[in-house]
Amino acid sequence: MKFVRKWLPILIVAWGAVPVSAWEVPGADGLQVHGFLSQGFTWTSGNRWYGRSEDGSLDFLEAGLNVSYRPTASLMLAAQGLYRRAGRVDPNQLRLDYALADWTFWSRSVGRAGLLLGRVKNPFGLYSETRDVAFTRPTIFLPQSIYFDRTRNLGLASDGVQFYGERYSDWGDWFLRLGLGWPNGVGDKEFERLTLGGDRAGDFDPHLSYIGRLSYEYQGGLVRLAVTGAIVNDRYQPGRDDFFRAGEPRLKPLIFSAQYHGERLSLTGEYALRFLDIHGFGRHLPDTEITGESYYLQGSYRVLPKLEAVLRYDVYFADRDDTSGRRYARLTGRPRHARFARDWTVGLRWDVTPWWMLRAEWHKVDGTGWLAASENDMQGRQRRWHLFALLTSFRF
To answer: Where in the cell is it found (predicted)?
Structure first.
């Protein structure tokens, strides 16, 4: 395993330098192999983001290799392996990102329908399904109010089945995704720290969960509207001498998305409500219901054919009934800015070649609500801080 972790990123770079035609396998029509590698640098004026970022950190690396094969016109098989290093949140993790069978059982000129079976990416908002590939993200880091990096594995994929249906017409296209399965990432320690306030003796196990997204596109994506809903179920299994009982947190996010994607100007906005129900953990964590609220507004403009600028305002509230965090601070003695975050982001993207991209961005943040507990002590967090990031990314 150590050998794989050491040499996988280097192999990805080497593969990226090989022409795509070198991956064609004689007699294997329909077989495609792709990959990507991203290396980032982060610096923060206070707090930590992906390693010891106060002094500058290179602890942000993503590398993936995916393969797809279409044995028949109606069936496609696809899988992707992912290596990710992101500070203490993802310390040198190598995982199976997705592995699925895509069966299109109905296909006509007016639409199609099918099933996805296996480890499937969750249709969560606008960016979740492709967030691993830097070329598909609007910025180096997605809006943290909705696409949390600290618990990214929880919303990324599920082991189960998804139905998809598409309907095409002259006045727009409709897309429906409905899924049920067992979410990945429930057992991650960052999720445990977020829910229970630290590393505990027990573990979380995923239970059957549900997700759905309905979206509408006009003129091939010029305008896109979507609504996403999910019910995420899991259960805590107490360990030996654990003072928590077998509790069950239930998360029900609801996201409204809108996007205009013109030739040079793109405008995007998403609004989310997170209904969290925590019960059954005992007197050390009383039963509670909390509704979180988030939104962001984002604009990007293609200054030159290969140069794009982006501006975003991103807002996160852990509890919409306590947006200042004062009630939380009074009850717990913890800093109130741990319950909110307001983030101004300015960024640039330069597509050096179709396969190589460079990015830079600056964040001005008020609040620490989406910082990872594994990298930041609660009492030591600074309310107002800056984040600067650079990224170079390759794909093939």
So the answer is: Cell outer membrane
